[in-house]
Specification:
There is one protein chain. With 446 residues, this protein is an alpha+beta fold. Helix content is 30%, strand content 18%. The chain is built from 13 helices and 16 strands. Strands 1, 2, 5, 7, 8, 9, 10, 12 and 13 form a 9-stranded mixed beta sheet that branches. Strand 14 and strand 15 form a beta hairpin. The longest helix has 18 residues.
Amino acid sequence: MSGDQNSGDTGWSESFEIVPASYDEKELNLDGFEQIDEFSSPGSSKQVPGLRLDNHSGFRFGIGCAFSGFFSALAEGPDQTVKKGSSVWFLGVHYFREDVGIPWWKKKKLRKKHDKLTEDPFRYDFYSRLWLTYRRYFPKLGSKFISDCGWGCMLRTAQMMMGHALISFHLGREWRWNFTITVPALESLHRGIVSLFGDTEDCVFSIHNLVSFGRKIGKEPGDWFGPTSAAYVLRDALNMASNSHDILKRIRIYVAQDMAVVPSEVERLLQNEDGSRNTVIVMIPALLGLERFNQSYVPCLKQILAMECTIGIIGGRPNHSLYFTGWQDDSLIYFDPHFCQPAVDVHTPDFPLESFHCRIPKKMPFRRIDPSMCLGFRFNSFNEFQGFKELVERVVNITDSQGRISPMFYFTEDPSSSQEVQNMRSLSLDLSDSDISGFELLPFSS
């Protein structure tokens, strides 16, 4: 039983497969898989059909993966596709999607013949970004996990942000994946970047490695990660491998604390002792509201996603992580990791790339997002960073009812004495603790 999430122009379908007869189900030994509840909050008793795997039946595992994607799509509501006739900002690039006025019944007939990705610049750009989703039947993670379905979405969105940063650095922001005619050198680099996110321990940004680094901050396989912890494990994985992988040698990650960015630290990471330069990924965990997202920040998020230096936002709605990459009107455009696909062996020559790219953009209203998120930016020089700093200080802030300016984040050389940071701490917005709210329910019993 199969389907293809990328097929067609609207809607969705989820591919899954039954555990093959040759697979040793006794080795799975996954007693205790709980049902995924895509809708409830911690402590809720509400349940929906989801993922349960024991040593009796692999069929329920496949069904669970399918339902995970189904309820993820259902929860977003109808008519959340990116429409024509309106401007789109996508990872710092502006598009205007023209509607040529063809009636819908004629469009349906012409779709197979004329609806090519290359004819829609925005969709072609979207399709060229990396899409990293739940995977199943990968080498065992910890003592029992062969899938991250139901708990790994935050790590998958972090992978996507990193993937875009690497693609734009090595191939350029203007690069597009031509899936029919390839340039060998560029395709080799594209494939090399994708292989960093394979689902085995020897892949730098694999779910296995990220969970391993998560143990240093108290996370175990099956635990949910918040945007702050996801940023730290991404940084640690890069630091461990940057000198041994050519693709990563000139990449550094800086993670801001308490929404405070220290410019001298960014400058230090941009320059090596031998005079060579790096590109620095700046990740800023932010909490834009207490219990709910403060919609006063909507113009600020729009400004951020329109900047050339943006690499997107790790965010989502409560209990449900998504990778936000742009916006149209009053909605965010995103990549959804909540589709459980079979693991791909990235060590084989010419491994298939199609499952790492998504054809269909989706949207979510700003008002529905969770206030906890991580903003991502990439800089090739300190001049670029300084220009970003000046722009942020001018336009990326809000003013409260008493006329006080409240930036989304701060620039300071001394966070310990910064009055702005102290004010944030006094409001109990210390992001090192904000991850406890999570984005997903922990679907496995201990």
